[in-house]
Each structure stands twice: as C-alpha cells, then as structure tokens.
Design goal:
Distance between the termini: 67 Å
Protein name: Carrier domain-containing protein
Keywords: Ligase
CATH architecture of the largest domain: 3-Layer(aba) Sandwich
Shape: globular
Family: Belongs to the ATP-dependent AMP-binding enzyme family.
Strand content: 15-25%
CATH superfamily of the largest domain: Glycerol-3-phosphate (1)-acyltransferase
InterPro entries: ACP-like_sf, AMP-bd_C_sf, AMP-binding_CS, AMP-dep_synth/lig_dom, ANL_N_sf, Plipid/glycerol_acylTrfase, PP-bd_ACP
GO molecular function: acyltransferase activity; medium-chain fatty acid-CoA ligase activity
Number of domains: 4
CATH topology of the largest domain: Glycerol-3-phosphate (1)-acyltransferase
CATH class of the largest domain: Alpha Beta
Radius of gyration: 30 Å
Helix content: 25-40%
Strand order of the largest sheet: 2-1-10-9-11-12-13
Structural class: alpha/beta
Length: 830
C-alpha cells in the first residue's frame, strides 16, 4: 500500500523512485526535459545554494518570474530547506513587487532577468541562470511538519488591498490529494500548464498535484497558439490548465474556420445532427477539429476567471470537455470542481475531498476544511474578520442544489443594490450583454445615486457603428426587469484593465465611469497596452510615444529589440505575431492596426524538413564527399589542427567559423570528423538567394538552384535580418533537438578586406537559449584561393584551426559575442 504524501517535502522525496519526465520546457527555441531524479537533485542543490546565502528555516524567499523549470526548482528548493516562498506575479510592477518584498521581510529574491531590479539592498539571484549556480553538493533532508508555512501569497483579487495569505504544508497537500482523487489523474497523464504558477491555481493544480501523481508538466516559454499546438503535436498532452481567454481564442479560431470553406460548413451542420450524441461519437465525427489537439486529450481545466457560456457550449457541441471549478487563494485554492463525467455543466462542480460548504442566510458561501489558510501575514484583525464560528467567509454569493453542485452568483462586494432594494449580480448580466451582436466584451458596475445604485454597463464594441441604445435595448429584452441596464457607455481602449489571470479590474472601470461623468472623459480611456510594451523594449516613456512615431528611426528599436517586442506582443495578445510586420518604416499606429486585426503575413520563404530526412545522407555523400570535397582537394592543400579538441564531445554543438569564401563549407566539411560531417545544418542569408528582385531572371533562377542544392547537400536553411529571424531561430532549435549540429558564420557575410568582420549577435542569442557548446573555428587561405567576387578558384594552401569547446552560462549576449569573436580571431592567426 502506498504511503500517503503529507507534506511537499514528501513529494520531493518521492522523485528519486519515479521514472519518466517530470518537466518539459519548450522555450521557443528548443525543448528541455527534466527527469524526476534530475529534478530531485537540482532541488536539493538549490537548497544548498540558499544555505550558502545564509537562508535558514522560516526565512522568506521572493520568487518573481514566469512559468519555467527554474521557478519550480527555486520554489521546491525553498520548501526543502524550510524557507517560506513569496511568489510575485510576473506582471507586477517593480513598485508593487518591492512592497511585497518589504512587507514579507524577504531575505532573498530569485527573479527573472527581464524584471528590473528595484530593491538593491536585498540579495538577488537571476532565475534564468539558476542552474549555473547549482554546482554544489545536495542538501541533507530535514523533518517537516504539516503546520509549517510553505507560501505567503499576496492577493487582492479584483477588490481591496493586497494581503499575504499564509499557506502551510497541510493546507496545500489537502488540496493536492483532493485534486488527484477528484480528477483521477496518474503517471499516464501530461498537463500543459498555462496558468501562472505564481498563483495558487497554477501552483497547486499545474505543478504540485501533477508531480505528486507522477505526471509530466509542460511549460511554454512563449504563450502563443502556434507554441501551444506545437506542444500538442510533439508531446502527449492529456490535460490543459488555462485561463478562459485562451479557450475563447481556440473557440474563435475554430469557429472562423467553420464559417469558411465547404468542409467547415459541413462540420457545422453535422454538429446540429450530433447534438445529443456521446462525446466519443463526436470525437470521431469531428476528427478534423480534434486532430490539432492530439487524440490523447482528456479535458481542459478553466481557471483564474469565469468562463463564458458560449465557450462551454462550443466545447460540448464538438466533443471537448471543459471542467470548471471554484476556489480562492485562501483555500489552497480549490473548493469545488466538476468531475470529468460531468464536464460541460453550468455549475462549478461539487466539493473535493475534505472540504465542507454551506450557504449563509444572506447567500454568502462559507467554507471549512484542512485546505483553508491559517492567517493573513501580520494582519490578525483582517484574519479574525474573515472567519465566523470556524467557517471561512468567501465573499461570494452562491447556491447549492440537491446534488451538491455549486452555482456562483457573484462577488459580495460587487453586488449592485438598486433603489428598489434588489440585488443585481454583474455575473448574471454580463453574459447576456456579451451575446449581443456588436459587443466584444462588457463590464457591469454600480454607480451610486442618492437612493441606491444604478446598473451601468461599459462595453467594448466589436462593431464601430454599434449603437449604445440598441445594445442596451437588446440586452434588456433578455433580462428580468429588476436587472435592467439603466445606462451604457463605450470603453475607449482596446481592452479593459485586467489582472494577470484576466479578471476585469472592476473598481478601476467604475472609477473611470465616475470621472467621465464629471467631465473628465480622458479618464475613461485605458492606457494602450501595446505602447507600454513598446516603452518596455525601447526605454522610451509611454507619454512620449505617439501614433506617428517610427519604431526604428524615432524610438531607436534595433534588431534584438524587434525580436523582444514581437515576443511580448505574441504573449500579451495570444496570436502568432510575425516580426516581419515591423519594418524600418513601421509606425506605432501601423503596429496598433496589425495587432487589432490579428493580421498574418505570407512567408517569404519556408523551412523545409526534407533536408533532414535520413535518406539525404546519400545526397550529402554525393554532393559534398564526392563533388565539393574533391574539388576543394584539387585546388586546396589543407592543414587541419585541433581535431583532438573534439574528442569526448557528445551531442549537438554549434561550430562558429569566420567567413571569407564560397568554398568555406567544403573546407570545413573536410576538416570535421565523420560523425559531424553528415549531421550538421547551416543558415544562409535569404536576401542573397530569394529577395533581390532586381536581378535578371536567369540569375535569380541560378541562385534558387544553388540554394536547393545547398539544402540537399549541407542542409542550408534561410535566415534574414529583415524577415522571420525569430522563425529561423526556432527552426535552429528544432535541428538541435533532432541531434544535429549547426555550422554558422557569425559575421553573416564574406569579408572583402581579408580581415574578419564584426560578429553579429544572432549566434550569441542562439547560444544563450539553446544551451549547447560552441566550437570556435578559425581558418585562413580561402580568402586568396576563392575570394569574394572571384569567378573561379586558384590553387593555394589553407589552414583550419579547431578550438576547444566553450559552454556559456550566465554571460550576457554582448559578452558571448565578444568572447567568441576573440577566440575565432586567435585561431585564425595560429
């Protein structure tokens, strides 16, 4: 009989005996896998690192970063050494993060490199580089009690001041056991965890419960539809934990395809005929819709905010399962959840193991159980106010039916009390408004009057010509008279202000409406999120960014910033933003139009997979070994030094070589050992092969032929400084994941002066993200044998010097570039 896990330390202790993969991290470049024993070792070494920094049991460690393996290692390392973790939302402003650090009295901060330092007096570790700091012995185990605190999670929900919720091992583990039993998950499952793990739903349901049951947890470095569907293709995903907006995005994407094309319309009609059919039948009937998600998918879990009925209906219609639940941070966080057999209902499910609920006379939901928190940190008065006779006051209204299913009616503090004394719940009115044609999203608030509150709706229209009067009239036609909307206004921004779990900041919306009524209309306009992202990358203050500001000329955006901005837009707006949208003439207004329309570009070139087929080894042998290498052998007397530096080197590497001639590939090919000759790929400038339309037709045709010849014999793939460089980097990561090496010329072009050109940053970006060794290679002689612009080669001597492999760690992009350039320059002159 298995021993029941009582503490999170017990979960860590179970890792050594487990097989399989604990964490899969797809960082947008390549995939990293952590086995359970490997994760256990890293956690214990992280505990040693904390001890080295003077951290003892009970000390606080702030964690400020995105979903990634290092976050889990940092958190479990804190647990293992008895420290208390203080998770901070990755989107928190530096000022807010500083307040949390100060209030919690954190003695150490582990933060993402993307977060600006704010408290210089608190020691800080960079989360991205955490593994490079773990060359330490493993910490010894310690006894852990169930009443020891694990986390202090600061939360304000959508109302009130932030408060630190203290959760113990016993609180969280009660929820972990309940979730595993309720959802019936085990080591055969893999979960795609898309909720922030700095929040308790993401931490408990997306990390701790899966690891306690032996599942694999999949994290994405870029939150895009493309990255998500790539995970479905490449990993055996059975469960997805996501916020409603992601599920709504999936619904919109599938819905748009159903409205276009004959097959889409046929499937749409078929969904009407199969309305009452079992889900298994629907999965067969809608094979084309289910295929992108893989056929191992069991269900989606929606959390962080309420999901709209239209998305749930869509899932039911096409045979998907969406499980809903209810909980709060103070409850670790789950109180109720739907079972898999009840997916798609209108309730928030039934209570999980060990949880008790009852409804107070005024309709408030009261909860009791071992998962309920112990206290608000350093706030005994607020703690006392939150309990009544041992029951936790959730602050939410709800109803329980005869079967124990919970139905949420709304937040107690958000309830609108009309002049007639009737309670109106925004959660009842907003779904009706959102279903009205011309409404993209709505927020219902109460505006104080002398005799009560007025029901006011704020709407973001999807149709610019929509009429406020028509929208209000249509919505009221579907509402009880006591719920009628009395006034309606349009929100001027593209989105409502929201928390990171995508709950509307209702208080901020209400305040904007009040200010607008006073005549300060500008107060109702939300600050542009896109301009905030541009400001974050360019360091130009938001107020100085105008519609006609050019990203390159006026805001000084560079090529690295272009990639960073594209990534931020992709994550914030959840669509695959192509960086090709940003050119030298792009203005802020242009970019806002692209983001608003979710525009897509046609690719200038593709990244074919056929050069990496195993059969292409024959083409390499014929093209390189028999043809090019023999031509090189005829013209070049080659001397190779440093081959011994490659002994003992295993796995894929990056060969960084100076570029002087079209003959460089053939010379380096001959210099490499056989195990690398047929297992490398090389990027080539797309501008040279494809994009110069001014050349004569015969020349363009010849260049295309030479590209495809190079793709067949050297696995060339296109890269560009103007188009799709991010996709080229992702393609490079895929090649590395496939076990192949990369031969790259960091100068990006052939020299004309016989002197080495400055190295560009692309190679350093690859090394920073791919985490593979780089082998510097310097060669000379080919600049005289086959120089740039020469029609034919001459006879001569060439020397190739292979350097020792270098593994970079915590160095910056600039430091990596400088070091690599120096090493290649030295080798070139040996």
């Amino acid at each position: 009989m298995k021993t029941e896990l009582r503490t999170i330390t017990d979960i860590i202790g179970s890792f050594d005996a487990r097989r399989g993969t604990a964490i899969i991290y797809k960082n947008g470049f390549r995939t990293f896998r952590y086995s359970y024993p490997q994760l256990a070792s890293l956690v214990r070494k992280c505990a040693s690192l904390y001890n080295k920094h003077g951290i003892h049991a009970g000390d606080k460690i702030a964690l400020w970063g995105p979903n990634r393996p290092e976050w889990v290692i940092a958190h479990l390392g804190a647990v293992y050494c008895g420290a208390v973790a203080v998770p901070i939302d990755i989107q928190a402003l530096p000022e807010a993060a500083a307040k949390i650090v100060q209030h919690s009295e954190a003695r150490l901060i582990v933060k993402s490199a993307s977060r600006k330092p704010y408290l210089t007096d608190v020691p800080t570790l960079i989360m991205d580089d955490l593994e490079f700091d773990l060359d330490l012995p493993e910490a010894a185990p310690r006894e852990t009690r169930e009443d020891e605190p694990v986390d202090i999670v600061y939360t304000s929900g959508t109302t009130g001041d932030p408060k630190g919720v203290v959760l113990t091992h016993g609180n969280i583990m009660s929820n972990v056991r309940g979730i595993i039993e309720h959802l019936r998950v085990d080591e055969r499952d893999s979960i795609l965890s898309l909720l922030p793990i700095s929040h308790m739903l993401g931490q408990t349901c997306g990390v701790l419960a899966p690891l306690a049951s032996g599942m694999s947890v999949v994290f994405l470095g870029t939150m895009t539809a493309g990255a998500m569907f790539a995970a479905f293709r490449q990993e055996r995903i059975t469960i997805v934990l996501a916020v409603p907006r992601i599920l709504q995005g999936i619904r919109s994407g599938v819905g748009s395809k159903l409205q276009s094309g004959g097959i889409g319309r046929m499937l749409s009609r078929l969904s009407v005929l199969t309305a009452g059919a079992p889900r298994a039948v629907k999965k067969i009937c809608f094979f084309l819709i289910h295929r992108p998600f893989g056929f191992s998918l069991r269900f989606f879990v929606s959390g962080g905010a309420a999901i709209d009925a239209a998305t749930v209906d869509f899932a039911n219609r096409f045979g998907f399962k969406i499980l809903q639940g209810y909980g709060l941070t103070e409850c670790s966080p789950i109180l109720t959840a739907e079972r898999e057999s009840e997916a798609g209902g209108k309730s928030s499910g039934v209570v999980i193991r060990d949880v008790k609920l009852r409804i107070a006379q005024d309709g408030e939901i009261l909860a009791r159980g071992p998962n309920i928190f112990t206290e608000y940190y350093k706030d005994p008065e607020r703690t006392a106010e939150t309990f009544r006779e041992g029951w936790f006051l959730t602050g939410d209204f709800g109803e329980l039916d005869a079967g124990g299913h919970l139905f949420i009616k709304g937040r107690k503090k958000e309830t609108i009390v009309t002049p007639a004394g009737v309670n109106v719940y925004p959660d009842d009115v907003e779904p009706v408004l959102n279903a009205v044609h011309g409404v993209k999203e709505s927020c219902v608030v109460g505006i104080p009057r002398e005799d009560g509150e007025e029901v006011h709706a704020v709407v973001i229209p999807s149709d610019p010509s929509a009429s406020a009067t028509d929208i209000m009239h249509t919505a009221n036609g579907h509402l009880n008279s006591s719920q009628h909307i009395q006034s309606l206004s349009f929100w001027a921004g593209p989105e409502f202000p929201k928390t990171t779990t995508l709950k509307i900041k209702r208080g901020q919306v209400r305040e904007s409406v009040r200010e607008a009524r006073k005549g300060h209309v500008a107060a109702a306009v939300a600050p542009s999120k896109l301009r905030s992202l541009i400001s974050q990358v360019t360091r130009v203050p938001v107020e100085e960014i105008a519609e006609n500001s050019r990203l390159y000329a006026d805001l000084k955006l560079d090529s690295i910033g272009r990639i960073e901005l594209s990534s931020l837009i992709t994550q914030e707006y959840f669509f695959d933003f192509e960086e090709d949208h940003i050119t030298e003439t792009t203005t802020v207004a242009d970019l806002e139009r692209v983001v608003a329309s979710r525009a897509k570009l046609n690719s200038y070139f593709n990244f074919p997979g056929w050069p990496h087929w195993r059969i292409m080894v024959v083409a390499r042998f014929l093209g390189m070994e028999l043809l090019q290498a023999n031509i090189a052998r005829f013209f070049v007397r080659e001397t190779v030094r440093g081959k011994e530096n490659l002994r003992g080197l295993h796995g894929p590497v990056i060969f960084a070589v100076n570029h002087v001639s079209f003959g460089d590939h053939a010379v380096i090919f001959r210099a490499l050992p056989f195990r690398y000759r047929y297992m490398f790929a090389s990027p080539a400038f797309a501008e040279f092969f494809f994009l110069d339309k001014s050349r004569p037709f015969w020349e363009r045709a010849w260049k295309k032929f030479t590209y495809f010849y190079g793709a067949a014999t050297m696995a060339l793939f296109p890269t560009s400084e103007v188009y799709s460089s991010k996709r080229a980097l992702e393609h490079t990561g895929g090649i590395i994941d496939n076990g192949e090496s990369i031969l790259i010329f960091p100068e990006a072009e052939r020299t004309r002066t016989h002197e080495m050109l400055p190295f560009r940053k692309g190679t350093a970006i690859l090394l920073k993200n791919l985490r593979v060794p780089v082998v510097p290679i310097g060669h000379r002689g080919m600049e005289y044998i086959y120089p740039r612009d020469a029609a034919f080669p001459r006879f001569g001597k060439a020397t190739v010097n292979i350097g020792k492999p270098i593994t970079f760690g915590k160095e910056s992009i600039e430091e990596i570039t400088a070091r690599l350039e120096t090493e290649v320059e030295k080798l070139r002159h040996l």
